[in-house]
Design brief:
alpha+beta; four-stranded antiparallel sheet
């Protein structure tokens, strides 16, 4: 196979590995929280700023669409799988890593919805109202990276206006 040709194994190793690592980390931390803390219990990490807690979220961000676990799981799964399939296109590697983050987060929360009926959230900041988890962080970092890449696309292509 010539350099530059599509190689599924190479794509898997480079981008899907990111998905697997984040998914595993997310699920290990959620398991640890579910088995260590009762729902609603809190551990103060940085006084008045950062707490670890165990919150069960049956909805989406900020508890929106509460009790819509099945629909949210289906939509998230379709989007995440679509992203993973779409990464076969000739995208800039920055987009592929960013999409890997979004897919990993989506799949992490889908796993919770499918196996537990709710998403386990654990990180609580005093200056940011929603409680969140590793999957949420991954989704946000991926989306932020995509926005940054879109804004810098001309520079990435070496085009000056």
């Amino acid at each position: 196979m010539e350099a530059g040709q599509f190689c599924p194994v190479y794509l898997f190793m480079k981008y899907y590995f990111t998905v697997i690592i984040i998914l595993i980390l997310d699920q290990i931390l959620k398991y640890k929280i579910r088995t260590t803390l009762a729902v609603g219990e809190r551990i103060n990490i940085i006084s008045g700023i950062f707490e670890i807690t165990n919150i069960s979220n049956s909805g989406a961000a900020w508890g929106s669409f509460a009790e819509s676990t099945f629909i949210l799981a289906v939509i998230s799964a379709i989007i995440s799988v679509g992203i993973l399939i779409g990464m076969n296109e000739k995208l800039h590697k920055g987009y592929k890593y960013s999409l890997s983050l979004v897919a990993a987060g989506g799949l992490g929360n889908v796993a919770d919805r499918v196996f537990f009926g709710t998403v386990t959230d654990m990180f609580s900041l005093s200056f940011f109202s929603p409680v969140f988890n590793v999957a949420d962080i991954s989704i946000c970092l991926g989306c932020f990276s995509i926005v940054a890449l879109v804004c810098l696309e001309d520079k990435l292509k070496g085009i000056k206006r």
